[in-house]
User: Fold this.
Amino acid sequence: MTSVQLRSGSVVLVANYTGTFEEYMLNARQTEFDTMSKFHYTMFLLLEDVHQFSHSVIVEDKWFGNYQNGTDGGVGKLLYDNEIDITCTGASQRPPRVDVYDYIMPSYHFRPCYIFRNPGSYDPFSAEFLKPFSSKVWYSIVAAVLVISICLKLFYRTERKFTRSKSKYSWATAILTTVSVIFQQDSSAFPPGNAGRIVFLVLQIFSILLYNYYTSSIISSLLSKPPEAFHTLDELGHSSLEIGIEDLPYTLTWFEIMNDSDVQYIFKHKVFPPGAQNLNIYEAEEGIAKVGRGGFAYHTQLDTGYPIIARTFDQDAICDVTEIPMIPQVEAGMMVQKKSQYKELFQITLRQMKQVGLIQRISQIWEAKKPQCLSSARVIAVAYNQVFMAFLALFLGMLVSVVLLVIEIIWFKLDLSN
Assistant:
């Protein structure tokens, strides 16, 4: 193909890049900008080296138009109108487009998502404080409390006959003493005889073993379990998060052509809310910075967002990062005209490149990976809704104690009147 010059087309979204087109496409220092075009241009140059053709390039600012097959705009229109032979950028492979274009070999992961810090919450009524022990263990503890209370009461009554003690040790005192020791509160009432003291000592050991296991388990659970994150567009749209998008052609086109209720709800209530003059559009750096501050979701390519996150977020923020896709994540690849004579030839060459690892090498350069969460270096704060049940138990206990106090006062007055 030494005498062949291919007409190619690419997409560049950064209007003010420095240097020539080729210098910008091969600049690996800014992988977050025009990643898909840079990825495929590198592949295109490998094809050029193998087959020794030359090329000219037409640069557009978008991939497709608003039609389902995209033939009314961008490089898609150039290819459809026979103004170019091949795209040296990639395009996502979707059913309507397959009818009018031929894809050589999809090799790039098209990954647009909403990126946000996980604002999910814990269920305050979850049985988190019951999970360290199974149901059988809890039943066994209740049974043990009753048995020990009965033993304390019986031993105290028996010992009282021999010691002729005048102190009273009621059933309520026995139960309260047992429960107090199990909850590490000790007791002011103490059995006078050896039998009662042995039972009391066994109760203390029983309490320590339960307490050590329970507290270590519950603390580990509270500190290690992340809050439940959003998983669907419906949850995201009805959340308190603000939402912004990057000014990308395929995102705006998706809002126009997609009739999904969740997508339209986000657009009408979050991206372009009632009364707003403009869409909530932000540059990548600004959008990701708002994500880092929390309370904000930003729609962009992961290959754009991840490098900025790795460079600007602290460890806590990185560990909180969550994604929800709106546009289905599909494969993308270079396109040629329908029934093009170059398709099979270039397809074979690219598959050989994939076998020897060249495509994987390009992927390692241009496709960004999610920043690693070093959870061992992270300090996790326990949220109030995680310990809601503990405060609820405290409130109910205080309420019960007030009710019992009123009953005791009434009972005491009635007893004096009789």
